[in-house]
Amino acid sequence: xxxxxxxxxxxxxxxxxxxxxxxxxxxxxxxxxxxxxxxxxxxxxxxxxxxxxxxxxxxxxxxxxxxxxxxxxxxxxxxxxxxxxxxxxxxxxxxxxxxxxxxxxxxxxxxxxxxxxxxxxxxxxxxxxxxxxxxxxxxxxxxxxxxxxxxxxxxxxxxxxxxxxxxxxxxxxxxxxxxxxxxxxxxxxxxxxxxxxxxxxxxxxxxxxxxxxxxxxxxxxxxxxxxxxxxxxxxxxxxxxxxxxxxxxxxxxxxxxxxxxxxxxxxxxxxxxxxxxxxxxxxxxxxxxxxxxxxxxxxxxxxxxxxxxxxxxxxxxxxxxxxxxxxxxxxxxxxxxxxxxxxxxxxxxxxxxxxxxxxxxxxxxxxxxxxxxxxxxxxxxxxxxxxxxxxxxxxxxxxxxxxxxxxxxxxxxxxxxxxxxxxxxxxxxxxxxxxxxxxxxxxxxxxxxxxxxxxxxxxxxxxxxxxxxxxxxxxxxxxxxxxxxxxxxxxxxxxxxxxxxxxxxxxxxxxxxxxxxxxxxxxxxxxxxxxxxxxxxxxxxxxxxxxxxxxxxxxxxxxxxxxxxxxxxxxxxxxxxxxxxxxxxxxxxxxxxxxxxxxxxxxxxxxxxxxxxxxxxxxxxxxxxxxxxxxxxxxxxxxxxxxxxxxxxxxxxxxxxxxxxxxxxxxxxxxxxxxxxxxxx
Length: 681
Prior knowledge:
- One of its GO terms (cellular component) is plasma membrane.
- This protein is mainly alpha-helical.
- Helix content is 76%, strand content 1%.
- The protein folds into 4 domains: 9-93; 156-193 and 248-379, no CATH class; 394-417 and 453-572, CATH 1.10.357.30; 586-678, Dsl1p vesicle tethering complex, Tip20p subunit, domain D (Methane Monooxygenase Hydroxylase, Chain G, domain 1), CATH 1.20.58.670.
- It has a two-stranded antiparallel ribbon.
- The longest helix is centred in the first third of the chain and has 107 residues, at 9-115.
- Residues 202-243 and 623-630 have low confidence and may be disordered.
C-alpha cells in the first residue's frame, strides 16, 4: 500500500524484476543439476508403458475368459436369489396363515354353532374371536369384514334366543293346564300318603316325604349349568304303592330356552331388558289364565281346568325362581299371587253362586282345598281361600236345605200315615235300628204288632242324620277346630229343622183333603221325633267330640219345631171338625111353622153325631205307648170334643136366632129341643 501510495513505484518494479531473474537462475541451475535423472525417468516410464500395455491385454483377455466362464454362475445365482425370495415369501405366508387360520376356524365354528342353535357357546366363541384372535390380524380385509359382522351376529343371536323364549312362553302357556294337573295329582298323592303315614306311623321311616325330595332337588338345581337341559322340575315321590310315576314340570316343558336366553342377554349386558320382557309377558299370561270361562260353573271339569291353569302358572314361576338367579324374585311372585288370589276368589264367588247342586258344591270345595294345599306346598299363602270356603259353606248349607226340602216333601207325600206293621223280629229290629224307639210293652206283644208312628218317622230321622253327615263332609280339610265344626253342623241342622222340615210339615198339615186320621198320626209322629232330638244331640256330639255342656255350644231347636207342628196339626183337627159340623148344619131344614114336633131327632143331627162318634173312635183306638195314648185321648180328643160341642151349640143358637126366622111355632121349638137333647145325650 505504501508502494502504491508513494512515489517509489518504478523503483519497486525494478527490484521485483531483479528478484524474478534471480529465481529463474536458481531454477535453471536446479534443472541442470537434475536433468539426467529426468531423462532416465522418462526412459523408465516409456518402458513401463509397454509393460502396462501387455498387462492390460492380459487383464482384458482374462476378463473376457472370466466373463465367459461366469455366465452360468450368474444364471445360477439369479435362480438362487429368486428361490431365496420365494422361500422368504412362503415363510412369511405360513406365519401369516398361522395367525389367520385360528380366526377362520373360530369363525367356522361360530357359524356351525349358530346353525345348530347353540347360541350360548356361539356367543362365547364370538367373544374369543373378537378379543383374542381378530386383533392379531386386524389389518386384513376379511378380518375387517368379520369385525363389521360381529354386531350383526350378536343381534342375530339376541333375536334367535328371543324367538326361542317366545316359543318357550307359548309352550308353558299350552302346558300350564297339564303342569297344574300334575302338581295337584302329586299334592293329592302326598295327602293320601300323609293319611297313610298318620294311620300307620311305623312305615314312615322308610320313605322320603315329597318336601324332602323337593328340597334336595332344589339344591341340585342350583348347581345346574346354564347349558344343562336336564333341569329339575316338579319332582315325584317314588311310592311303593304307586305303579305310575307322575311326570314333573321339566318332563312337560323344556326350560333350557329360558336359561340360555337369560345367559345370552346377561353376557350381552341386556339382562334387565330380558327380565322386564319376561315379567311383562308372564303378567299378560297370568291375566289370561285368571280369566274364567263363562260356563265354568256348569261342571266340575270347568273349575278343575281353571285351577289347573293357575297352579301350572305358579309352579312354573316357582321353578324359574329356584333355578335362575334373579330372573324373577319373591316380591314379583308375591305381587302376581296377590293379583291371582283376588281374581280367583272373585271368580269363585261369582260362579259358585250359580250352583244349586250340593254335590257339585262339595266337589268344588274339595277341589279348592286341593288347589290351596297344592299352592301352599310351594310356599304361597292361601288363608284367604279358606276364608272364602267358609262363605261357600253358607251357600252349601242353602243348597243342602233346598235338596232336603224336596227329600222331606217326597217322604211326607209318599207316607200312608198309618202305624208301621211288623210281622217278625227281623223287621222289628231293622226299624228300631233306624230310629231310637224303646217300649217295653210293645216288645212283649206277640207278632204281628204295630209301631205307633208311621214310616216317615224313621225316614225323616235318617235324613236328618244324612244331612248332618253332608254338613260334616264340607268341614273336612278346612283346618277348623272341632268346636267350629260342631257349631257349623248344629246351626245348619237347626235351619233344617226350623225352616225346611217345619215348612214341609206345615204344608202337609194345611193340605186340602187331609184326613183327621192323618192329622192324628202326624201328632203322634211329631211327638216321637221330638223325643228323638236328644239322640240327634248325642249323634252330633259323637262325630264332633264336642260335649253339649261346652260353652258356646249351639242347642238343637228340634223340640220347638215338632211342638209347633203338633200344635198346628191340633188346630187343623179342630178346624176340620168345625168345618164338617158346618157341612152337616147346612143340611138342617127346620120347618119353623110346624104345628107338631117329630117323634125323633133330625136326621142331619143323627148323622152328625154318628160322624163325631166314629171320629172320636179314631182318637181313642190309636195304638201306641201309654204316654202317647194318654196325650192323644186326654188332650187332643178332649179339646176336640169341647171345641166341636161349643161350635155346634153356637151354630144351633145362630139357626134359632137367624134374621130370616120371623116367627116360630111351639111344635118347631119342641123339635129343636129334641135335637138339643140328642146332643146332650
